[in-house]
Amino acid sequence: MRRFLRLVVIAAAPLLMAAWWMDDQPSFKAYEAPVLAPPEAAVPVSGRESVTWQSDLKNPVTPAEETLSHGRTLFEINCAMCHGQTSTELGPVGKKLVPPPPSLAPDLVQSRGDAHIFKAVTLGFGRMPAFKDKLTPKERWLLVNYLRTRE
Q1: What does CATH list as the number for 65-149?
Q2: How far apart are CA 86 and CA 102, in angstroms?
Q3: CA–CA separation, 75 vs 104, rounded Å?
Q4: What b-and-e string marks burial along 121-135, b requiring 16 or more CB atoms within 10 Å of the CB?
Q5: What are residue 120's phi and psi, to 5 degrees?
Q6: What is the 3-state secondary structure (H, E, C) of the chain?
Q7: Which is nearest to 148 in space by CA: 98, 117, 110, 112?
Q8: CA-to-CA distance for 65 and 51, rounded, in angstroms?
Q9: What is the mean pLDDT of residues 118-136?
Q10: How large a percentage of the chain has pLDDT more than 70?
Q11: Fewer CB within 10 Å, N side or C side of the chain?
Q12: pLDDT exceeds cutoff 70 at 23
């Protein structure tokens, strides 16, 4: 019997050793995305948006009923608490700020270019926070288009 156990241990030892070093393989773990090699002649991109006050930008989003509706929703979620639902009255947070935020009246918005409004939303200014990390570039352009139609 002892001889049999010794034989089993000797026979199982290589298998146990294999299981020991098999955990340390260059394989993917659960929920780990595979690292893919870039295509040949690919140009690396940092993935970061580069917007400065000197940037020359053009609005890529054409105003349409659906995009204006989406812009309105974004405005109500992100902007109305300070700037107000309409240009005649500030929002609840805006009423408490000294000095108050601009009311975004149509004449003020129309006097600014699309790029200027986009940069203000993207980079922020004064107490207004930057929305570059909160809204995608397309969402910020949707806001610009909505502000053009707001009363």
Answers
A1: 1.10.760.10
A2: 12
A3: 12
A4: bbbeeeeeeebbeeb
A5: -65, -40
A6: CHHHHHHHHHHHHHHHHHHHHHCCCCCCCCCCCCCCCCCCCCCCCCCCCCCCCCCCCCCCCCCCHHHHHHHHHHHHHHCHHHHCCECCECCCCHHHCCCCCCCCCHHHHHHCCHHHHHHHHHHCECCECCCCCCCCHHHHHHHHHHHHHCC
A7: 110
A8: 27
A9: 91
A10: 82
A11: N
A12: no
Q: What sign results for the dihedral spanned by CA atoms 68, 70, 76, 79? A: negative
Nearest C-alpha neighbor of 112 from the set 67, 62, 61, 57: 57
Buried b vs exposed e over 59-90: b needs ≥16 C-beta within 10 Å?
bebebeeebbebbbebbeebbbebbbeebeeb
Sign of the C-alpha dihedral, residues 150, 124, 45, 28? negative
For the record, the structure tokens of 6 come out as 């010794």
Beta bridge partners of 89: 86
